């Protein structure tokens, strides 16, 4: 949390970040929704909060939501689904990254409800998504399951919409000073050099110096 960037039009509130960094919301079994455009730092901030929770002795699991659905699909097949659900239910902070990237099928909606239902009032969940919260109900497609899923997340959730430019863009670097070309001349009075070329062409003052032989 010490490295959170507050500039660049991100509109992050330092008081809120300090509150989230204290992890009291996790101990109170509340949730956190991070939304915003790609590259704005949702995943980074979610992982920073997860790191803060680990440092305070809380258990944390991070998983990309599409990968979680794949893991649960395999668990249905090998008979480990119940064990996987039990493991997730015991985790004090579950970070679901990249929510809403692709449409869900019926089995995935059912699994999502199972995961979230085990956490209501007992555990905390962080969800990151490019999709604004007001579009989640339509994204889940099934109105009945959408109501059930969102009712287990949103009522006790802090909502934070990130803004600003993509943090994946390379930082602007200061231009290097122009190169110097040294012209050496000889005179009866001694050795003289003159820095010219790029500095002069770019409007920099030329520098000269005079050395007298000893």
- Indicate the CATH class of the largest domain: Alpha Beta
Instruction: Give helix and strand order, one letter per element, not per position.
Output: HHEHEHHEHEHHEEEHE
Strand proportion: 15-25%
Distance between the termini: 61 Å
Give the helix level as a range of percent: 25-40%
Please report the total strand number as a whole number.
Answer: 8
| Structural class by sheet pairing and helices | alpha/beta
Describe this structure in words.
The chain has 214 residues and is an alpha/beta fold. It folds into two domains: 14-161, Rossmann fold; 181-211, no CATH class. It has nine helices and eight strands. The strands form two sheets. A five-stranded parallel sheet has the order 2-3-4-1-5. α6 (106-117) packs parallel to α8 (143-151). The chain is globular.
Produce the secondary structure layout.
Elements: H1 14-21, H2 24-27, E1 31-35, H3 42-55, E2 60-64, H4 65-78, H5 81-90, E3 93-99, H6 106-117, E4 124-129, H7 136-139, H8 143-151, E5 157-161, E6 181-187, E7 190-196, H9 198-201, E8 207-211
Parallel strand pairs: 1-4, 1-5, 2-3, 3-4
Antiparallel strand pairs: 6-7, 7-8
């Amino acid at each position: 949390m010490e490295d959170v960037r507050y500039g660049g039009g991100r509109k992050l509130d330092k008081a809120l970040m300090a509150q989230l960094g204290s992890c009291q919301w996790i101990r109170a079994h509340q949730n956190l929704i991070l939304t915003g455009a790609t590259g704005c730092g949702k995943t980074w901030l979610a992982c920073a909060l997860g790191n803060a929770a680990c440092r305070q002795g809380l258990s944390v699991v991070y998983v990309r939501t599409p990968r979680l659905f794949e893991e649960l699909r395999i668990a249905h097949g090998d008979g480990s689904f119940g064990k996987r659900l039990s493991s997730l239910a015991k985790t004090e902070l579950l970070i679901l990254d990249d929510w809403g990237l692709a449409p869900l099928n019926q089995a995935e909606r059912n699994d999502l409800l199972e995961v979230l239902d085990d956490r209501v009032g007992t555990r905390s969940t962080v969800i990151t998504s490019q999709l604004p919260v007001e579009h989640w109900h339509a994204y889940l497609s099934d109105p009945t399951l959408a109501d059930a899923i969102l009712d287990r997340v949103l009522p006790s959730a802090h909502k934070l919409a990130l803004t600003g430019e993509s943090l994946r863009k390379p930082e602007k670097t200061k231009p290097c000073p122009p190169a110097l070309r040294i012209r050496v001349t000889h005179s009866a009075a001694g050795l003289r050099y003159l820095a010219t070329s790029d500095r002069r062409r770019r409007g920099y003052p030329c520098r000269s110096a005079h050395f007298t032989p000893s």
